[in-house]
């Protein structure tokens, strides 16, 4: 019997043999002494049963499939799907070659689900075992389809989790944003507009959170597989919204931007009310490109207009171009 351990990338080659099959009687006896007392060591495919120890020294937890020429089972911590190939070396080599094309797909799937719950991982391990069985039964197209569908399902589940983490971390900005608005409105009034600046920054955070929520609903947010990356991205977007809101408020309140009105309400100058400050901040946080576009318009362009080409070229080096001949 040949046993090949099914490990993700970075581990020994999937085709490497853990045991020579079957070992001599003396080797088996020695392994039995080193194994768990009272636990039978499986040295052939027929002896692969739950509760036994395989010849690699691992306890067999579950047998997914078992035939005369192979067995597919689970062992170890963390659990791994393992194939025990035929007791005949020639047949075993053929089996290894037959399913080698499935190993990259298997490795990809194992990496995708490594952060899933144990129950979910076990479901994917069962699909991996089924795909390996189909490969050993020479149904390669069906085997690849099983793994491909599992990978698509794992990616979709990973995206759902990523969107949830993204929204959770973005939503955490709601409380400090409301705190800024309340502090600005209640405790620092009449201090040269500082309270309006704080209220505008808080409204910018709320606008950014709403923008993120709409983008997540529309599936237009780039979700990473790592939850930390999603959390950082969400925090950065909220921070950008707060900074944009503060900058836009200062541009309007200081009069740097020209007079802007909405209806009969002026959006510039030191006469801005708290309602206008909240609206300005919310708009800056919700529309990510609003402040950058305004800044680009307010900064004068350093480039000068290029001279337009003339139809008659100036003489060069004192040589006058000959006149055109009439046709």
Can you tag this structure with a few keywords?
327 residues; alpha+beta; 2 domains; 4-stranded antiparallel sheet; two-stranded parallel sheet; 10 helices; 9% strand
Distance between the termini: 95 Å
| Cα radius of gyration in angstroms | 35 Å
Low-confidence sequence ranges: 5-34, 301-327
> Strand share of the residues?
5-15%
Mean pLDDT: 73
The overall number of domains is 2
According to DSSP, the number of beta strands is 8
Spatial order of the strands forming the largest sheet:
1-6-5-4
Characterize the biggest β-sheet. 4 strands, antiparallel
In N-to-C order, the SSE pattern is EHEEEEEHHHHHHHEEHH
What is the overall number of helices?
Answer: 10
Helix content: 40-55%
What structural class is derived from the secondary structure elements?
alpha+beta
Per the principal axes of the C-alpha atoms, what is the gross shape?
elongated
Concise structural overview:
This protein is an alpha+beta fold and 327 residues long. 52% of the residues lie in helices and 9% in strands.
Q: Can you describe this structure?
A:
With 327 residues, the chain is an alpha+beta fold. The chain has two domains: 3-160, no CATH class; 172-298, no CATH class. Helices cover 52% and strands 9% of the residues. The chain has helices at 25-34, 89-99, 103-112, 118-136, 140-171, 174-186, 194-217, 227-254, 274-286, 290-298; strands spanning 3-5, 41-42, 53-54, 60-66, 71-75, 80-84, 261-262, 265-266. The protein has a four-stranded antiparallel β-sheet with strand order 1-6-5-4. Helix 4 packs antiparallel against helix 5, helix 5 (140-171) packs antiparallel against helix 7 and helix 7 runs parallel beside helix 9. The protein is elongated. The relative contact order is 0.07. The model is unreliable at 5-34 and 301-327 (pLDDT under 50).
